[in-house]
Design goal:
homodimer; 16 helices; five-stranded antiparallel sheet; alpha+beta
Chain lengths: 461, 461
């Protein structure tokens, strides 16, 4: 509970219309995509950087917890006030695109801009912002940076961190800092922008972002290959990529995911296939597109591809991608609740990971469909629970997921490719990091936030 | 001076052949490319990570300064033991390429591997490691990472930081840490690898690097354009790049640099040209190459290009690049000593920067030829001093350089695009960073190195 004097001070600071403590408003900031609920003690909407500065300095002095929040679309509880305190929301007053600089191919934005709005704005100028998390219609650029969001285009274009050139942020003590530059090359001082990316709101509140843009590729085309086994499909992926093709996306569905989509939508998918790969290439001239598709076809067919189709028009393009886009909702045929995690391993270790998942599925008696981004080894593993009200089945589900994390880490993978750690994966941190590494994280946290007011206890810190 | 007991302990630890305190040996580790000289108290060659661990833990306990060193090719004194202590050299026992993984397109290397050796090794397998600092024949990958080295290919392929996926390092207290992963996507924990890049050996000693590789582009071709003015040339650069062409390199020489090369080598260069642009494009199919060159030709000619030539064979390719490759040595026609710095501004601000440089040249009565990487706004600015033994001229040179830094920063540029801060630019740090930002750097330094034994006082810290 927030003391009345603090509530009064903060309310005066930003105005009553920008500070709420009533349950109805708080409810709207108590959720994210985890479906956990944590009521904050208040929600505050700073109007500008100076407000952020004053809020943080005040809360730091009075040891009031601050949880920064974008759109609340996170999958790991990063924006949840699980330990009370205030949600500091950037969605209301930090939603402007400040500058799109076509000469330097960069843009300056406020952190509350929705990813997709920004993509549309730059594409209208013939430019391109590649990071495309599945949440792009709702999630904010500030949230994307704080979680280092990925997406389907990562195989070719990388992830959010590859597009952050500079930022402004406010430290818990109220210090305003700038980090990075509008220049590709900048090696003066420590890479503070680099460490704020993916820091899940634990180190500072970002108030402005300078993002890198590309020219928009003129052409793109998609293709699909059907394989007898995941192993063959993965061999085809890495041989294609080593040949000089860097596909924009290289997505896969396993047999369970294929069957789920077919059961729901009857699209004529191959029910017996071990895997489907769906890929897209882009470029500037038709010959570059056809060369890439030729290479992919060759390496697919040399590695057990039994059916290869190239989309010849936008309808066929849509059709090819239908299965991938509808995989996530279709797998609900296997159970009422899915425990889904974005496990990532080095690309070539995907077959080994999926073998482990098959074993774990057997062992725990749970169906585990998988699909995702083979281009970067990022798999969405879905442990399906038939009845979430059965505590023993839920328990088995959690244990199966933990076994999957252990397998991924044994294969030199990571706890999270895209979603972050937040609350949901905090307890798994010791699986991935040594005590010395965790101690270093804590010292870094303290260098930014000595009073531990900013999103405390997240990431297992 | 190192106490005898410490010398004995360290000598015993690594063996007498790996620890020197005699002047002849020390001399060989007292220099770098700055031409400053600082004799260390000793030079030690750890044989493996365990040696690094023990050396650091011991020196940390006894407050002995450690200066990590690769090949000593740095331009800013990062590897110089300006405050005594030991040089810790990684060139002798850390020079192995541990793994080139063609499935995942990554390599694991020790930090002492020479950049060019590594490039050759991966190219023999049809792969590609883009970062190509001018020092590539001598400099080490560990040094490249510690300084975040750039190079000519940065406009298209980025810089060293874009290729570091993971690393192992030893903290001053002897803790061994791993940071990053072999996966494109990894968002678990703080981005410790990100902050070690460009940290100039101030935070930890890197003992292993996992680097990202690309497939080697099959085709490349170069072209040259002659312009009446720098302004026109820069307009041509940004219009080309906004059209969807991302050249591998887009290099320029100003009039003074052109005349210097011509005076030395009589290659028939246009002595009256305001600027020459030399560019290279690459790709997989001939049509992709010709489309890019067509776009560049169009945008060059629409912006005042008076002569445009495409290299049709390897001899012509060599000829086009001759002027750029020989600019650095040729400008010695203007003076015995050059004060050269790698100032970087946003691409579109290059004409404004070069106008400022022209004014500063007038004001201080010094010739200042410029050349460099327009694709990323990185200019090598060379303040030429006729007589380095004349203290007043040297003083004027230093003041001119300081005026140039101020101009660059006013244009949202950086103190250093490629060379780092080290000793040489330490005094300029307050021009670029606020007291709050400097204080944060110091807290980050202390989070890694509380006793300040690792390359202390560098970067103005």
């Amino acid at each position: 509970m927030l003391e009345t004097r603090h509530a009064q001070h903060l309310s005066q600071l930003v105005g009553v219309q920008n500070f709420y403590t009533d349950p109805a408003h708080l409810q709207a900031y108590a959720y994210d995509a985890t479906k956990e609920r944590h009521m904050p003690d208040g929600v505050i909407f700073p109007r500008d950087e100076e407000d952020v500065r004053q809020i943080l300095a005040y809360c730091n002095a009075h040891q009031i917890i601050i949880v920064p929040r974008g759109a609340g679309t996170g999958f790991t509880g990063g924006a949840l006030s699980a330990h009370g305190g205030l949600v500091l929301s950037l969605e209301k007053h930090f939603d402007r695109i400040l500058e799109i600089d076509t000469k330097n191919l960069i843009a300056r934005v406020q952190p509350g801009v929705i990813n997709k709005h920004f993509q549309n704005a730059v594409e209208a100028l013939g430019l391109f912002y590649p990071p495309d998390p599945a949440s792009q219609d709702q999630s904010t650029l500030g949230g994307n940076v704080s979680e280092n969001a990925g997406g389907m285009r990562a195989a070719k274009y990388g992830i959010t961190k590859d597009y952050v050139m500079a930022l402004r942020a406010v430290l818990p003590n109220g210090d305003v800092i700038r980090a990075g530059k509008k220049t590709i090359k900048d090696v003066a001082g420590f890479n503070v922008a680099g460490i704020l990316i993916a820091s899940e709101g634990c180190l500072a509140v970002i108030t402005e972002l300078t993002l890198k843009l590309l020219a928009k590729p003129k052409l793109k085309q998609s293709a699909m290959g059907v394989f007898g086994s995941i192993g063959e499909a993965m061999e085809a992926v890495y041989k294609s990529m080593a040949s000089g093709v860097t596909p924009v996306a290289m997505e896969f569905l396993d047999n369970l995911s294929i069957r789920a989509v077919e059961q729901r939508f009857a699209k004529g998918l191959p029910m017996d296939a071990g895997a489907i790969l769906i890929t897209q290439v882009d470029g500037s001239v038709p010959e570059q597109i056809s060369w890439q598709l030729d290479q992919i076809e060759k390496h697919f067919k040399e590695n057990g591809c039994i059916d290869f189709r190239i989309a010849q028009n936008s309808q066929q393009e849509e059709d090819l991608w239908f299965a991938r886009r509808n995989a996530s909702q279709s797998i609900s045929v296997y159970g009422k609740k899915k425990l889904n995690e974005d496990v990532t391993v080095p690309r070539a270790s995907l077959p080994a990971l999926l073998e482990e998942v098959a074993k774990i599925s057997q062992e725990y008696g749970l169906t585990i469909p998988c699909f995702g981004h083979t281009g970067d080894g990022n798999v969405h593993v879905n442990v399906m629970v038939q009845d979430p009200n059965d505590p023993s089945e839920m328990q088995r589900g959690q244990e199966a997921m933990e076994a999957i994390f252990k397998s991924a880490i044994a294969l030199e993978g990571t706890l999270s490719g895209e979603h972050g750690i937040g609350l949901s994966k905090a307890r798994f941190m010791p699986l991935a990091f040594s005590p010395e590494e965790m101690a270093l994280f804590k010292r870094i946290k303290a260098a930014f936030d000595p009073n531990n007011i900013l999103n405390p206890f997240k990431m297992g810190l």
